[in-house]
Amino acid sequence: MCKGESNRVHNSGRKTAKMAGPPEATDRHPVVIIGGGPVGLSASILLSLRGIPHALFERHRGTSIHPKACGINQRTTEIFRAMGGGLAAVRAAAAPDDVKGRTAWWTALGPGGREIFPRDAWGGGAYADEYAAHGPTRYEVMPQNRLEPLLVRRARELNPAALRFGVEVTDLVVDEADGGGVRVKVRSSRGEESEVLARFVIAADGGRSVTDKLGVPWIGERDVMDMVSVHFRSPLRSRHPDPRNFIIWFTHPDQGGSVRTGYLYQIGPWPFDSPEARDSEEWVFSCAPTASDPSKFHRLVLPLGRCRRRRGSRQPWWAVIGQRRARHRVFQAVHHPGPSHSTLVDVPRQGRPLRSAI
Ligand SMILES: Cc1cc2nc3c(=O)[nH]c(=O)nc-3n(C[C@H](O)[C@H](O)[C@H](O)COP(=O)(O)OP(=O)(O)OC[C@H]3O[C@@H](n4cnc5c(N)ncnc54)[C@H](O)[C@@H]3O)c2cc1C
């Protein structure tokens, strides 16, 4: 198993976005967005479409290097549809139908592996009509490291100057005496510090930095378990016993059962016949490691074939949600349920109060 490291920890390998200069001390914006993940980038696009000037600060110099979220639910693709060019680009590069709509449980892959149960899922197969009846768009599967560059491209088409990568928000002061604005302190990757003024702030920081500063209490359980992910390249598809499955869940009582045994999912690139996809299939294996069995990856996945360029990450799973979504003029994407759920649905919920406020 690859050695663990905390999530989103290093910049090497990131698709570096074009850097804007450090913000000027006199910068004033109707809206400041903290965070350039899917929520922050979507917020930027939606604000631009409404003609609302804003600045987005992302502390990393580029987009996510980790696949992270892969399932984009139907409500979120409806929002992407409202972004104009956004949905078409996502649809074109998302998982094909024969991959995205099916999942199965196996004891292991390779010799001795046995299928326990397959099923349709995420709007595929038996669920296609039901999903179609509930919305004009479809559930899509696309990892975050490919989604974010598409959102950046769309955000830049609409407002080339809004995205400031490599700039971290270090503090927020809600200044009610000064017409109710927010003073946002920022530090560039070169260490230059300055302050910008915002009428409203969208904290799309994944609940990682400003939530506590705002005094938003979390409810729920933290540190439910540690999960380790291994992101690797390997031509597994031709040897996979059923590559129609987006995810294979390993379940074996001797290895902890369920997520403790682990799961394997394919992350493209798609379409399979694109030049980008040739000889570069990417996969992710995740599991909860146990001291007694640190070698699940080797036993469950490697029997199918060798892999290269592995990158590991370790994340604690939380099941917490912030108790408030807005405080003064700061709108917070506070949902932090751990790796298996998404805060993407927070985009419309955040947009409503903000629209009426502006
Ligand atoms: C291994 C893994 C698997 C996952 N699988 C799924 C899945 O299948 N489906 C799913 O829906 N979700 C999944 N998730 C969860 C998903 O990644 C999150 O829900 C999603 O990233 C949340 O989007 P976001 O934009 O709110 O936050 P993030 O993507 O966390 O983006 C927040 C951004 O804010 C930046 N930031 C934070 N603080 C500051 C600051 N002070 N100044 C400037 N920038 C700042 C961060 O650098 C980051 O880029 C998974 C997560 C992991 C780790």
Automatic annotation (TrEMBL):
The entry's keywords: FAD, Flavoprotein, Oxidoreductase
One of the record's GO molecular function terms: FAD binding
Xref: Pfam families: FAD_binding_3
Region spans: Disordered: 1-26, 336-358
Source domain of life: Eukaryota
The FAD-binding domain, residue ranges: 30-270
Protein name (database record): FAD binding domain-containing protein
